[in-house]
Design brief:
Structural class: alpha+beta
Radius of gyration: 34 Å
Largest sheet: 8 strands, mixed
Strand order of the largest sheet: 5-4-3-6-2-1-7-8
Low-confidence stretches: 94-125
Distance between the termini: 82 Å
Number of helices: 21
Bound molecules: adenosine-5'-diphosphate
Shape: elongated
Strand content: 15-25%
Helix content: 25-40%
Length: about 625
């Protein structure tokens, strides 16, 4: 029979896995056990919702090592796989995102460093294939529930697989691993040792809710021993359940170590990196549930794409009823991974009904509160850790404020942190407000691409000199988020790049007013030359060393205009830009001179100065070649 080939990416991934020098080959067992457990969950769930009358006690996993044959067999009586499912589930590895995988790994898979290698493998849920880390050949025999036929999938690794019919009496799956021969550096026969297997089950799969059974040796008193003889023992094989079957989330916090929590996370959520934090709740009262949630250290590869699906696993009394329940997590906490188990939810509830379920809504509310309180704790007590978290997921929280049109302001505003000019590190809004100068009514911020870039903005320079603290906004969403907030503790947010920010005293104000009146005609000529590009041209006293700066007079800032115009959906929203000219700069005298003597050159100056102001803001000039030729005109 012709061998079928694995899909190209699968083949590459499989080779990578087989040849991986990864030391944790032992994880193959937990992967296979976890698949078996899922298969039994599926059948049990089907039985509950379709009244098939199966009882939970019937389900079990068996592990059978055979040293003579060199095989390790794992059986389950779960839902099984049809021929098509064998093909679909085991014939393709990177079911999702095979393209992304290609991009990440490139053509030469072997140059990927080990850790990254494994985290790539983890991301694609290739659990089953880990069997090839220890086996030279794998046979999967499976009989799906309700079918008379059984099929057998056989593969010796990356060169393909075959599927044939086979005899199998009972529903479920038998996986037989032909364990690799030992090499000089690597022992594989340890995976045929009962004590080793037992320890692996304890270490990784203790919480599995179905019994994992294996024949274990035990010493027994010989039956025919006479009372007066010295007792004699004999070794017998006895089937033992290896796991305690208590799900980790049902245990008490005091019984669990960080390692327990982290191992469970890595296994369950296919992450090779430890999580930033764990949230373990057991709540009784209005709703009764246990939740075990994690904040990952790294964002999943698809996190900021629309393919990413948020959600927590949902269990009803220990049986998984939904792999990803999106209704349990608000969008602004969509990065949280974990599960919720509640007795208050009925097992055979349909997805549609679940959406309107009052219990579920109550749980979701409580889950949100709990995540927030954990984050607040981290913000207060572990600032550095929080900053790392923020770097990865902060944008999502800010989107949460922006997207909810104010509804989440109260809930999320105290989680925000921004870089502060005064502190030279991240600060909360509350901390900013407590440091505000006497009489300061507004919270100042400046937006730009990087902290260094913002630091050199002319407007920032002046405010900093006067002793005001400025928040630096470097992410696209930042300014939109603050605008949505509007106020924090009754203080308004104010961009230092806006035209009406004013920190001058009365004398200075009068001076500026007069300077503008005196230069009225000059400014009018410049405004006329610039036309629609600017809303106004003004004389300014707020600039120190720079000749000009650009501010905006409407709600939309120049930075926001930049963000919007970069969006894929074309957006023509324009900021009302104001060109401000430094009256103390020599260029201002030059302008006055030109106004009197050569209006044509004054217009060229107006254009050039406007473009320079754009450049200082980090915005591309409108017409670079025109700009350059005007510069040359002046230089020659
Ligand atoms: P994952 O478990 O992350 O989906 P795997 O490669 O481990 O990835 O398994 C692929 C699929 O094969 C599973 O999603 C499941 O549908 C099917 N499968 C694997 N093992 C079994 C089993 N013992 N019984 C039934 N189906 C199984």
């Amino acid at each position: 029979m012709p061998k079928k080939q694995f899909k190209a990416e699968s083949k590459r991934l499989l080779e990578l896995m087989i040849n991986s020098i990864y030391t944790h080959k032992e994880i193959f067992l937990r992967e296979l056990i976890s698949n078996a457990s899922d298969a039994m969950d599926k059948l049990y769930y089907k039985s509950m919702s379709e009244n098939l009358g199966l009882s939970r006690g019937e389900f079990e996993i068996n592990i059978i090592p055979d040293k003579q044959a060199g095989t390790l067999t794992i059986t389950d009586n779960g839902i099984g796989m049809t021929k098509e499912e064998l093909e679909k589930n085991l014939g393709v590895i990177a079911k999702s995102g095979s393209l992304d995988f290609k991009e990440t790994v490139g053509d030469d898979a072997h140059i990927v460093p080990q850790d990254e290698e494994m985290s790539i493998i983890g991301q694609f849920g290739v659990g089953f294939y880990s069997a090839f880390m220890v086996a030279k050949k794998v046979i999967v025999q499976s009989k799906p529930y309700g079918s008379e036929e059984a099929f057998m999938w056989t593969s010796e690794g990356s060169d393909g697989y075959t599927i044939t019919t086979c005899e199998k009496e009972t529903t479920g799956t038998i996986i037989t691993l032909f364990i690799k021969d030992n090499t000089d550096d690597e022992r594989y026969d340890e995976f045929l040792e009962r004590y080793r297997l037992k320890n692996l089950v304890k270490k990784y799969s203790d919480y599995i809710r179905y019994p994992i059974k294996m024949e274990m040796k035990s010493s027994k008193l010989k039956e025919d021993t006479e009372d007066n003889e010295t007792p004699e023992y004999e070794d017998t094989l006895e089937i033992k359940t290896l796991n305690s079957m208590v799900p980790i989330w049902k245990k008490n916090k005091s019984e669990l170590t960080d390692e327990d929590y982290n191992n469970f996370y890595k296994d369950k959520f296919n992450d090779f990196t430890e999580p930033v934090t764990v949230i373990h709740d057991k709540t009784e009262g209005m709703v009764t549930y246990s939740a075990l949630m994690y904040i990952p250290k790294k964002a999943p590869f698809d996190y900021y794409t629309k393919e990413y699906e948020k959600g927590l696993q949902l269990y009803s009394s220990g049986v998984m009823i939904m792999e990803k329940c999106g209704d349990l997590l608000p969008d602004h906490f969509s990065f949280v991974k974990g599960l919720v188990d509640s007795e208050d939810l009925s097992l055979n509830i349909s997805r549609e009904m679940l959406q309107h379920d009052r219990q579920l809504k109550a749980i979701a509310k409580s889950v949100e509160r709990s995540i927030k309180s954990q984050l607040t704790k981290m913000l207060t007590n572990e600032r550095e850790k929080y900053c790392e978290f923020w770097e990865t997921f902060g944008a999502q929280v800010k989107f949460g404020i922006y997207n909810s049109f104010g509804a989440n302001n109260e809930a999320l505003q105290d989680l925000l942190i921004f870089y502060s000019s005064a502190e030279q590190k991240q600060t909360t809004l509350d901390e900013y407000v407590t440091r505000m100068k006497e009489g300061q009514e507004e919270i100042y911020y400046a937006a730009g691409e990087t902290i260094t870039r913002i630091d050199t903005l002319p407007q920032v320079e002046t405010l900093k000199d006067k002793g005001y603290e400025i928040l630096y906004l470097i992410e696209n969403v930042d300014e939109f988020c603050l605008q949505m907030l509007g106020l924090y503790k009754d203080k308004q947010f104010k961009s230092v790049q806006s035209a009406d920010v004013d920190v001058s005293d009365d004398d200075e104000k009068a001076e500026i007013k007069k300077a503008n009146e005196d230069a009225k005609d000059l400014l009018a000529v410049m405004k006329e030359e610039l036309g629609d590009k600017v809303a106004d041209v003004r004389v300014s006293k707020r600039l120190k060393s720079h000749p000009v700066c650009l501010t905006s007079s409407g709600v939309l800032s120049t930075q926001m205009e930049k963000v919007l115009s970069a969006m894929p959906v074309g957006n023509n929203a324009k900021a009302d830009k104001v060109l401000e000219i430094n009256s103390a700069h020599p260029i201002f005298e030059k302008l006055q001179f030109l106004h009197k003597n050569d209006e044509k050159v004054l217009k060229v100056y107006a254009d050039i100065l406007y473009n320079q102001a754009l450049l200082i803001e980090g915005i591309p000039v409108d017409n670079p070649s025109d700009f350059v030729s005007k510069m040359c005109e002046l230089m020659s």
